[in-house]
Amino acid sequence: LPEPTIPINALFWLLASLPLAVLLVLLVALRWNAAQAGPVGYLVAAAIALLFFRTPLRTLAIATAKGFWDAVFILYIVWAALALYEVARVAGVFATFCTGVREFTPNRLVQFFALALVFVLFLQATAGFGTPIAVAAPLLIGLGLRPVYAVAFALIAHVWGNSFGVLAIAWLALNLVVDVAQPTATVIIAGVLLAVAVLASALTLAYAFGGRRALRDGALLIAVLVAIYGLGQIAIVPFVAELAALVPASLALGAIYWLGRRPRYQEEMAGDVRPEILSADGGTCDVGEVAGGEGRRPSLLLGFVPYYALVGFLLVALVLVRAVPALGELALGFGFPATATGYGVTRPAEAVYAGLNPISHPGTAILFAAVVGYLVLAARGYIPRGALRPLLGRVAESALPASVAVIGFLALAQTIDHSGQTLTLARGLAAVLPPALYAGASVLIGALGAFITSSNTASNILFSPLQAQTAAALGIQQSLVLAGQHAGGAYGNAIAPANVVLGTGTARIVGREGEVLRLTLPWTVGLALLGGLLLVALYALGGAA
Amino acid sequence: VRWQLPLIRLLWLSVGLATLGFVLIWLGTVTSPIWLWLGLAAFVVAMLLGPASRYLAEG
Description:
The complex is a heterodimer of chains A (545) and B (59).
Chain A: H1 10-29, H2 34-52, H3 57-91, H4 93-104, H5 108-126, H6 131-142, H7 147-157, H8 165-177, H9 183-217, H10 219-236, H11 246-261, H12 300-303, H13 305-323, H14 325-328, E1 332-336, E2 339-340, E3 346-347, E4 350-356, H15 362-379, H16 388-418, H17 421-432, H18 435-453, H19 456-474, H20 478-491, H21 497-506, H22 513-540
Antiparallel strand pairs in A: 1-4, 2-3
Helix pairs in contact in A: 1-2, 1-17, 2-16, 3-6, 3-15, 3-16, 3-21, 4-6, 5-6, 5-7, 5-9, 5-11, 6-7, 6-21, 7-21, 7-22, 8-19, 9-10, 9-20, 9-22, 10-11, 13-15, 16-21, 17-18, 17-19, 18-19, 18-20, 18-22, 19-20, 20-22
Chain B: E1 5-6, H1 7-30, H2 33-56, E2 57-58
Helix pairs in contact in B: 1-2
């Protein structure tokens, strides 16, 4: 295929960055909510595509429709997760859970880590697609955290599990679009970048939770967990990339149980929890709005039925789609014709675009958990009769703003992709940066892709070919930039607007996405710079091709 | 503005129009392109309702 002929200059680069800049300004600076800002981002992207990037209306329409279908993929999780949340809330599960975790150990740091890191990463390894944020945010609120922090912590914690979670779907996608020259070196370097991420996540969580004393008190906890996640993944990934997140995430579940039983962690944590992250009630188990409120609460064993159902369904689905190829190949979706722009940006026709497998899609598992949870808890009298209708009303109340936002974000993502704006952004960076800096910038490009699409997998599909081509043109080892892309795609998920909206939806703070981004944005930028510096150092140590 | 709507109804309208837009665009790729233009128009209106909710939503 002929190369696209978009001029790569400052004007086009600025035009291409305008939709994302507008989105950030509206969300972070002007504090618009995501349902207002997301659609504006799409409209700006569409206008720029039509006016400057020679995008025919037909291409714009097809890109828009693909973005809508991508949104369906995410919104299936959002609506199901909100239903699960409402079932748990009405039945008083969060209050039960809060009490149960506190009975396991009086150490609040261990309680916090069990949920904010270990549970989040287990869900990310098994379900992905924003599930841990949607599920863990309300549970963290149940533990007494303020909703904005609950969402931000879940976002920061889930980063490590993106690149090799859900049976390494993002890595498999990268391999589909690029002929990876040095797969072992690539996954090991990516593993190192992800180990840095999980270390940063753990240190940030501990420090944010209880300052320096929490870092000291939690040193053993952090060291063990980071070793399991970081080193465990590096050890496994060259052999079975598909299990490189799932195995460490499962081992960490056992490790936190073992650690929580140690005498050291059966005592109260040293120092206090930072008051600014705690909700007004100071973190008691009477969590007001999020508790059942009827006085009668299920036991921990019973209250956790929806979550057993969730994990059980996920694991059965993971095995089923592997064992029965016909089930694994199920793909609901729509076909779309090829598209092109006046600058020669083309996208091929697809018989089924982004097919949705109803068995392995995490939305089905969450919906299953919500239905099972409702039936069991209602049968045992923990959900009053007539609760279903208001419950569904509250689900819609939270899910609708999230839906408008996600549709806007993903239509924006496809529009800037199909019109060549994404390509312009990445090529502009590649054009002005020397090889060493480009090696570092590969992380930022991967993160940018995830910010745009809210997906490590989509970021890899979007940018890996460009990264590989640029590496070849600049004489950089391909493994460095592909590792940067792959891990950067994980980093960017902490600021991806669709992920933020998943959290604000279930945390019932829709409209406060900007506050969450103000916490996760500096963290993500810092992490991407750190990862980039690591790659610059590796380039200096012999990363020239 | 005289014809303000409850926010929830505006959002339903936005999601509904976006869905209609998607269906029409897809229809336009397999039948007459007129559906594609109508679909894109419906989607754009759906997206305008998001920011418009700042002014059109009650409460």
